[in-house]
Specification:
The protein has helices at about 1-25, 35-50, 70-90, 140-150; strands at about 35, 60, 65-70, 95-100, 105-110, 155-160, 165-175. It is of the alpha+beta class. The longest helix is centred in the N-terminal third of the chain and has 25 residues, at about 1-25. It starts with a helix and ends with a strand.
Length: about 180
């Protein structure tokens, strides 16, 4: 009964944040923009402390003047969930890169050197609450939140094999003018 109540509260929170993100993404011309480097630096500092027992840190790079067209909190959710997931599964290395694709789009790639995820299981982990490894801590919400939030902004998420050997989370997102 307690678990069911907690699960319902979590579902309501996820739904609330996704509704807010969808509404923000549908409101054109708001002019909200978030500097990508600031968000990556903030998340990398926090997560490096959390995963310090792995002996590594989060190597990140973003072009100066690269801006996400959207709310700071939403980019924190997108990048933070992906970076936290990478930190949880890595053997010691996490690499994050943000690059412009065009005047309207940017690409954020978060990769790790962990065990990765077989291609035939990648769509499964995008379902809300799906967890492939029940022995690891987590709610199974992170990747589904990233996917839904990216789509709310007209972006997309792909899961690929990382150059480091683990999983790569690739996000194509709207880019704001500098």
């Amino acid at each position: 009964e307690v678990v069911e109540r907690q699960a319902e509260v979590m579902r309501q929170q996820v739904d609330h944040h996704l509704r807010r993100a969808r509404a923000a993404a549908r409101t054109p011309g708001r002019g909200e923009r978030t500097e990508v480097a600031d968000v990556l630096d903030e998340r990398a500092r926090a997560l490096t402390r959390i995963f310090q027992d792995k002996g590594g840190d989060i190597d990140w790079d973003a072009e100066d003047g690269l801006y996400f067209q959207g709310e700071r909190q939403d980019l924190l959710e997108l990048a933070g969930n992906a970076m936290e997931n990478a930190g949880k599964w890595c053997a010691g290395r996490v690499r994050v890169r943000a690059v412009p694709l065009s005047d309207e789009r940017l690409r954020l790639t978060i990769e790790d050197d962990g065990p990765g995820l077989p291609p035939d299981r990648r769509q499964e982990v995008l379902r809300r609450g799906a967890r492939l490894d029940e022995s690891a801590p987590g709610s199974g919400l992170g990747l589904s939140i990233i996917d839904e939030l990216a789509r709310a902004y007209g972006g997309d998420l792909r899961l690929e094999t990382a150059a480091l050997g683990g999983l790569a989370v690739v996000l194509d997102l709207p880019r704001a003018e500098t």
